């Protein structure tokens, strides 16, 4: 029987170190603890939900790849799609954001709005994804709550509408005032460890002597906020004009249950999605999904290749034969998997909002649509303007075959953009990246996974503009510019600097030179 409970599909966006991994684990463990009431989970379980798998990720302490975490909470199923934190992986992160219905913006109370948070927020704004803000690490000294609200308003242009307000300043966390009920949610240190919510709900008249002074301060600020039109408005939130705010300590588990409740109560459910032809596929239509990420090398024991797809409409049933929109060919889904971090299990059915992993999906590329019934094709996942360019060549010419296969694979996964031209020939593709760390990933995977050492030569180009066949012809032979073709067919004109791009555009008004969306 398909599990048709309502879904919530979201991602956490944050600057590295804001506490995303800590929060992710706390959310999953809390939901699990509720579901398996009385069960005790130790440290070992905590690790099992961690989604980073590459040795390199461990060494760097960052999460490079994305996976989805699914858990049941109350009468819902929650899908948390993991995003990598490092700015060099922004392309990957942007793709992931195409698969969610809402985002949780995690802010370090001591640091305020950091660059990566701002970038990611802009993508959410661009895509109209509603954002819930969580001010984390309130157990540590940090900025003032009102100061943080000003920052959100000023830097991201969203009106903050706090749902809770801290009782006690950062570093002296007594709990929060629930602005909807007026209750005091008191922070308590309980013995339950990581799986227990250390929260106790008290009426305003039950606030203890010790907390009375800070409680009164919180009430005063809460009333000020009310005058300032900072109360939650569901319509404004869904329209991307306001952001509900709550205060938490992911490490202490405080606010974790509140956040889950908030997601269920306020965050949007999966909805109908528009195809490239403008038609809308409703969630209860026939099955359709789009691929937002392709990955391989998760299991070194055997070669595997996983395409992550988000179900848009209908019920997915393992074994069903779907149509691959890009080729019109049938695609068998016998080996569909649920992808929860390191663990993979077969998935029997999935509903709109869920993420499925399709094994050995060699034909599937990022952005592809699969469907049954009436044809549908969803808009491509955006690619971003590359700013770093190298030529790649096989480090060991005897292993050229492996080199070529590796490049092709990494291209299909979208690890880097691969550009070619007749002039340069096939043996020395140009690799283009939004951030230079993408090249490190290429080097690491080429060496360890494909056993094909690779050599890079830096190119002096700094930016790319989209052009067409006529543009390629017109620009051929000009100084400071080179036109190459990306594997998706897009022609990119690479320029040595901004100045050269401007002059070329001025002198060649008929040549198409389009800016690409800015990435990292
Ligand atoms: P990520 O890079 O965003 O995934 O951040 P992590 O979850 O790895 O957290 C970074 C560091 O901040 C770790 O040392 C965490 O223990 C710590 N941390 C996370 N949340 C909190 C919190 O609420 N309070 C305090 N004091 N530390 C936290």
UniProtKB/TrEMBL annotation:
Name used for this protein in its record: Peptide chain release factor 3
Listed InterPro entries: EF-G-like_DII, EFG_III/V, G_TR_CS, P-loop_NTPase, PrfC, RF3_C, RF3_dom_3_sf, Small_GTP-bd
Subcellular location: Cytoplasm
Superkingdom field: Bacteria
Gene source species: Nocardioides oceani
NCBIfam families xrefs: prfC (TIGR00503), PRK00741.1 (NF001964), small_GTP (TIGR00231)
Pfam families: EF-G_D2, GTP_EFTU, RF3_C
Family: Belongs to the TRAFAC class translation factor GTPase superfamily. Classic translation factor GTPase family. PrfC subfamily.
Keyword Plastid: no
Residues covered by the Tr-type G domain: 5-271
Keyword line: Cytoplasm, GTP-binding, Nucleotide-binding, Protein biosynthesis
